């Protein structure tokens, strides 16, 4: 379903736009993704809506068939990109799993703020964003996906999330559509 509305108390949740992740080869240029996410963050702040900036600083234990990083990340890996213009009012979440809700204070923070909807952006579409969206959906939150403010390491995984998974969890739209709805509903 296309993006139709934003709830009165909507929060922006930006996933893993950090130095070590944006440096990886992705399906779409991370510069554009960062630019769109930064525009969303600025607009949410301007409208006094919550901005949540999530980074990843570890991984869940357990065996997997595909290799994944183990041990400590290099210095600066988890630092958020400067384009996000982190503000004191932003809520910061550091995760050690794919999704931003597991073993963090994100759910409690959103409840405390009275949030009923989140707009998701960041990297990686099929991992961090999708995991966070699935959990948010199970919590009963409305979800909007800013589809041009996200990318993945693999184009096929990105496309699968956008076309098969996200329409079952929420509504999708462009950054501009989110910005337009913010202006229309908060004028």
Task: Please tell me the total number of domains.
Answer: 1
CATH domain class? Alpha Beta
Fourth CATH level, the homologous superfamily:
Isochorismatase-like
Count every helix, treating DSSP H or I runs of 4 or more residues as helices. 6
Question: Judging by the overall fold, what is the CATH architecture?
Answer: 3-Layer(aba) Sandwich
Number of strands: 6
Radius of gyration: 15 Å
Features:
single chain; 187 residues; Rossmann fold; 6 helices
Question: What does the model show?
Answer:
This protein has 187 residues and is an alpha/beta fold. It has a single domain (10-59, 78-185), classed as Isochorismatase-like (Rossmann fold). It is 37% helix and 20% strand. The chain has helices spanning 19-22, 30-46, 106-113, 125-138, 155-169, 175-185; strands at 10-15, 51-56, 91-95, 117-123, 142-151, 171-173. It has a 6-stranded parallel sheet with strand order 3-2-1-4-5-6. Helix 2 (30-46) runs parallel beside helix 6 and helix 4 runs parallel beside helix 5.
Q: What's a concise summary of this model?
A:
The protein contains six helices and six strands, in the order βααββαβαβαβα.
């Amino acid at each position: 379903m296309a993006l139709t509305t934003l709830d009165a108390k909507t929060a922006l949740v930006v996933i893993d736009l950090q130095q070590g992740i944006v440096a990886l080869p992705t399906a779409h240029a991370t510069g554009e993704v960062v630019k769109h996410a930064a525009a969303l963050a600025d607009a949410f702040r301007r409208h006094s809506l919550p901005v949540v900036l999530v980074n990843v600083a570890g991984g869940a234990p357990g065996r997997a068939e595909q290799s994944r990083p183990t041990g400590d990340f290099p210095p600066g890996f988890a630092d958020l990109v400067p384009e996000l213009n982190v503000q004191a009012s932003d809520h910061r979440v550091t995760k050690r799993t794919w999704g931003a809700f597991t073993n963090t204070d994100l759910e409690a923070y959103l409840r405390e703020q009275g949030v009923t909807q989140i707009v998701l952006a960041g990297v990686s579409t099929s991992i961090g964003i999708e995991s966070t969206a699935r959990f948010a959906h199970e919590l009963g939150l409305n979800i909007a996906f800013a589809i041009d403010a996200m990318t993945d390491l693999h184009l096929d995984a990105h496309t699968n999330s956008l076309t098969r998974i996200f329409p079952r969890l929420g509504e999708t739209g462009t950054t501009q559509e989110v910005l337009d709805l913010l202006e229309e509903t908060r004028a």
